[in-house]
Design a protein that fits this description.
209 residues; alpha+beta; Alpha-Beta Plaits; three-stranded mixed sheet; two-stranded antiparallel sheet; 5 strands
């Protein structure tokens, strides 16, 4: 949705700049021709019997209104309220919000050893399956292939075993932190067992609610 919004804004700004330049040029250099150019169109639009020009303008205005209201609705609606219709492993229809799925994935992926940050995103895939995109940052000593397989297995376990959803594509965008240079000050190590226990506690509390 962000890509669509950005594209629309860029197009509107581009056409707005062109329209402004054309208007300035017309008012400065072509004022005598403006009345002769637009008078027939104004006469056709303001004529008493409603004809094709009026119907065309009304249709365009309705399309613009519907498109604007739809974009405004999608932009203002909280993402957690948008529910996706998905298929369970048993073939039943399931309505579940994207936030509920990503929260479960986040709790399962964050405590993994070597994972600094994991940001999952879910989409509706083919045959009402759920597709997953995981943007992940790991430490420099992580084996990329092994960690990718581990994250894929964990994501599938959460979606299929925990939520009972049919899984489509699982894509992982992995970025490793650079190894510290020699002579760099040693940073205090994180207490991973304590962090994992805290994350597990939060996941249990969320599931209980």
């Amino acid at each position: 949705m962000n890509f669509i919004n950005r594209t629309i804004i860029v197009m509107l700004l581009f056409f707005g700049a062109l329209f402004s330049c054309a208007t300035i040029a017309a008012l400065l250099f072509f004022r005598a021709n403006l009345a002769a150019t637009f008078q027939p169109a104004l006469t056709a639009l303001t004529s008493d019997p409603i004809g094709a020009p009026q119907l065309f303008c009304i249709g365009v205005a309705i399309l613009v209104l519907v498109f604007s209201v739809l974009l405004l609705y999608l932009e203002l609606m909280p993402s957690g309220k948008i529910r996706m219709r998905l298929k369970s492993i048993q073939g039943a229809d399931v309505l579940m919000s994207a936030d509920a799925i990503t929260t479960q994935l986040q709790y399962a992926l964050d405590p993994l050893p070597g994972v600094i940050r994991a940001t999952p995103k879910v989409f509706k895939g083919k045959n009402d399956a759920v597709d997953v995109m995981i943007d992940m940052t790991t430490t420099s000593d992580v084996d990329v292939k092994q960690k990718t397989n581990e994250v894929t297995d964990v994501a599938r376990t959460v979606l299929e075993g925990g939520l009972g959803l049919r899984v489509g594509k699982v894509q992982i965008k992995l970025e490793q932190m650079r190894a510290p240079k020699k002579g760099a000050p040693n940073l205090p190590k994180m207490d991973l067992p304590r962090l994992i226990a805290a994350k597990q506690e939060e996941a249990n509390d969320a599931a209980a609610k």
